[in-house]
Write a structure and sequence with these properties.
The complex is a heterotrimer of chains A (about 450), B (about 475) and C (about 280).
Chain A lengths: L1 H19 L5 H21 L11 H29 L7 H4 L12 H28 L2 E2 L8 E2 L3 H4 L6 H24 L5 H24 L11 H30 L5 H9 L6 H12 L5 H10 L10 H28 L4 H9 L4 H39 L11 H11 L3 H26 L9
Antiparallel strand pairs in A: 1-2
Helix pairs in contact in A: 1-2, 1-3, 2-3, 3-7, 7-8, 8-9, 9-13, 9-15, 11-13, 11-15, 13-15, 15-17, 16-17
Chain B lengths: L1 H32 L16 E7 L4 H17 L3 E7 L3 H13 L6 E5 L3 H6 L9 E2 L1 H5 L4 E2 L2 E2 L7 H7 E2 L2 E2 L2 E6 L1 E6 H6 L9 H13 L8 E2 L4 H11 L5 H5 L12 H15 L12 H9 L5 E5 L3 H11 L3 E5 L14 E8 L4 H14 L2 H11 L6 H10 L1 H4 L5 H7 L5 H4 L6 H18 L3 H23 L2
Parallel strand pairs in B: 1-2, 1-3, 11-12
Antiparallel strand pairs in B: 3-14, 4-14, 5-6, 7-8, 9-14, 10-12, 10-13
Helix pairs in contact in B: 2-15, 9-11, 15-16, 20-21
Chain C lengths: L5 H8 L5 H24 L4 H5 L9 H11 L2 H32 L5 H10 L9 H10 L6 H5 L6 H12 L4 H8 L4 H9 L4 H16 L3 H6 L8 H7 L9 H21 L1 H12 L2
Helix pairs in contact in C: 2-15, 4-15, 5-9, 5-12, 12-15, 12-16
Classes of the chains: A mainly alpha (about 450), B alpha+beta (about 475), C mainly alpha (about 280).
Amino acid sequence: MLIAGLIVAAFLGPLFVWRKSDSPSVARYGIASAAAVVGAAVTPIGMGQCAFAEETSGVDHVLAWALMAGGAWLALIITQSVFDKLDGKKTGGGGVAGEIRTGGYRMGWWVPWLLLSPTLIILAVFLYTPAIQTFTLSSKLTRLGAPRSKDVCFGNFSELLITDPVRLVAYPLLAIGFIYAARLWVTRSTPDTWSRRGADITSVVAMLSAFVAFYAMFSAGGGGQVAYRPVYLNTVIISVGIVVFGMVGGLAIAYLAFRQIKGGGVYRTLLIWPYAISPAVAGLLFFMIFDPNAGIFTYTMESWFGIDVPNYRESAILAQMAIILASSWKIIGYNILFYLAGLQTVSIDQVEASLIDGASARQRFTKIVLPALSPITFFLLVTNLTYAFFEVYGTIDFMTKGAPAGKTSVAIYEIIRVGVNNGDLGRGAAQSVLLFLAVIGVTLWQFRTSGERVSYGGS
Amino acid sequence: MKYRLMVLAAAIALVAAACGGGADATTTTAADAGGGTPAATEAPGGGEPIDIDFWVAFSDEKRLGFAQDRAAEFNAAHPEYNVKVTSFASYNDVFDAAVLAVDSGEPPALIHFFEAATRQALDAVDSSGNKIFKSVTEAIGGRTEILGEPVVLDNVVSAARDYYTIDGELFSMPWNTSSTVLLSNMDILNAAGVTKPPETWGEVTAACEKVMAMTDAPSGCISWPNHSWFAEQSLGQQGELLANNDNGRSGRATEVFLNSKGMIDYVSWWKDLADKGYYTYTGQQRDWGGVDSAYLAGELAMMVDSSSDTVIHTEEAKDLGFELLASFMPRNENVPYVGNLIGGATIWMLDGMDTTKEDGALAFMNFFSNPENAAAWHQLTGYVPITEDAVDLLNAEGWYEAEPNAKVASDQLAAAANTPASLGALIGNFVGIRDILTIAIEDILVNDLDVATRLGQANEEANKSLSEYESLFGN
Amino acid sequence: MKGLAPGVRQKTFFRGRRWPYHIGLTITALIIAFPLLYAMLVATQTNAETYAFQFTPGSALAKNFEAVWVKRDFAGAMWNSLQQAILVTTGKTVLSLLAGLAFVYFKFRGKWIVFGLVLITLMMPTEVMILAMFRLVGGFGWQDTMAALVVPFLASATGAFLFRQHFANMPTELLEASQIDGASPVQFLLKVLIPLSWNVIAALFVIQFVYTWNMFLWPSLIIRDESKQVVQAALQTLTNIDGSLNFGPLMLAAVLASIPPGLVFILMQKPFMSGFAVGQDK
């Protein structure tokens, strides 16, 4: 199995170079082939080939192949960027790193290193080291204070997934195929035709199918498997809810507050202050409001409107909505702040032109303001998503603690429950790796789509 | 050259500021930490008193304050020692912190740790594989007095002694010990025509039927937190084991029974109450606060609660103006009653101290639960008086005549037969297994699942978890 | 702003009366403020008053304050948080300034690699490696110390890039002039760059202060000793006061915990906003 994978890698290497380069030489094909093999071989050999040992399942093999593919791909990207550099091209990271002034000081080589050393040391010790350790931990069965630990290879991962290797491979491939097909349709169709509209709708559906594919890949539990599907679903529902609620609300309020009126500055301050509130306090405030016995929400509903409100912590939908509400309340100030800044950049010429054309306020908003805000919207999308992935922990811990029946337990909450509260470090680390992959996916998507953009988020 | 030196100096100063700042901050806050305990600890000989760190998993002023006050008294009486009480948010916090502290070389002397994790504490080892804790019985070594403090370990009430006795000896010193009791709001029950608190499952259901039929019925009839401890209590009452090898007492438990008949019957009754709208689920696991809050708001006629708050709740009920009556936890009328078990925590002593320090720690532990202190602890909270002498003292004072509610837990424990079932289980990774059961019960209550099927799944999960634990910690 | 007078923009954008905006904004501001206002109300009440839904200030503010601030030493937690927030914010700003200086005004081998390594950390939030980090930092013996709350957060890719970008947009003549004067890089940083960067520093200060003050998950893992706990995690134990859930003191603590970041945010709002404008303007 391992050998087969390496042979495939040996062939894929030249293919990659052939697609990316203009004038590949035979030597480069050879180097690429070797690089792919090395990249693919590093992880399985590092893990003692455990995934291909006798007692492993088909799912383990799939994961091992995926890991080998990832290793080969990474090795090829590095190889290719070296080739590009040799050819005098700008490296792939150029768009992100931007134009850097080519230094003014001519001093000892060590001076810049000295200036950078505190940053680099801290990043190495407190980010890179634990990141690597997360991966090593994820292949172990271990507990805090345990006298020994056991290697379980991909066991912590495969128990989160469905047990049928064929479907595990088929689902993502189907989704990818669908997305590519939709994209192809979009490029082939002419704008402003029904065909293009159909293609646009299809590509949105295709993107959604990726979510469904992940859902189908995770295990529903039973038979010794861990039910990770609900966690995934909770994470998607709560994150999407927070992002949509927070951003639509933020934009609406920002648009309202953009007009210069007397006391505008005071209004703005009154609108954006929840940015300073912590997710934990946000959770506490809404915990109070929605408390079934002492909360004002239940009381008002019952005594003013005669509506008998069930305890939100007993209903999955209500609990998720409560979390979304509390979280988007906290993030909305941040979104208003950025949208206010973004509205300043809307092109005044276009607005004027549209006025001359006699466009309605709604048309002006959808045709001019929204497109002009799209970079900021995109930036907010990513920061809001990060917030919804991680910061929501504090809110959940105070409001529901994952209740009812785990329906508000999102990925980060589950990591802490499994890894800290139950002390199961290996499983917690494996779930961390999944979340890590999700973050890498989102960030790469951000880099690809937006080029250079400074993040204002936490770290 | 000048540039270089400046840059270098700046960088060094920066790093130093970063690290040094951290260290400074630590020392200042450490000094603040002692604020709770008056530092009346001038050693007579002029020597520094020996620090005895006591890590406590309470943070509310009553319980933590009690520990701090006793430490201050002890320090005043024994100026050569300085017992320092440090507060932690939970038992797990104390334990994780202690394990890390052992490895970093600055362990506390005593930690406060709970009953369900007894096996985990016994199994705990440091990075070189040595056991972290030392048996208190062994350390006392038959002495009847340590540094002038009479040893009370032999005087511990049997329910606690039996629970914590492993391989024939008490490994840790029992402190806060409670059982489950039924607290009834007699104003509501009387209004519904129920004159005395129900004793069995059937009586609870019947009483609830009457309560909920009232025109001004509360929003629910009964509640208790979804905590595995209640299910364990129920198994003890019904005489069923939670784990093999006599609940892990005649050998390491290697199998758990989360879907035994007793468990299924108990959860089915629970679900039936919930389905009829009699049982109010707060929606959260281990939600002591939520149940209290609903009960005190008059939204419930009854709650099953830890006796640890009986005295507190009785006072609160007086303030709120209703009559609160404590009684035994309702039992299954279809099987003979075997016995309820304890819950709570003990004080564990860390291994590796020199004799002088160890004796100080032992003396403090025995002082801490001397008859006066044990009685005061009971009167403050409702935890059972932990020694026989404390019970005698309370009787002599006439305490129980004034506060009959306070006696219920002790009576219930005294009524229990001494069998492995009613002693409760010692299981590896019990905390994780409890979590599995709690989740399953929540799933059953909220999602209306079949009791036997869902408990079967939980049982499978729990046994997997246990076998993994045993493969890491077992022999 | 693109050099256009705000009045002109406004006229182009908006027509019609102003009072609907006043009404709309007032209502929105009230809705947004409601949770905090309600918490302030409850903070003055006893449990009985809260359960009775009394909408006037209660009788227990002093008692609740004593319960939280004195008996449970919330003051200590606030002090710990303040130390942490100031140390992290200051350290991060200094380190980011130095890194920005190195990236913009120096040419050195391996710059691309270093830049890339710092850049990659943008997609490595602490939370995804929190278990390993807990083991690592615990292994240093740093549990229950301020070091654990500060040191891991001193380096910041965000800050380094923010300053790098800001410095790169500055005129080259600055450096040339300072070199003619014979100033060292550190002097250049102190005398020229920092005075021109206050907006960015202020913006970073607000973001980092709020971020650090609001930290919850990490302190609740690495700080177990309650006397060393920071505000957000200390709130957790306040859900049990006197043996049960007491809303008054709990809400009071929530309000108190929000004062410092709120104050920083409101007081520094102007430089914060203009710092953002610098960040936006490319």
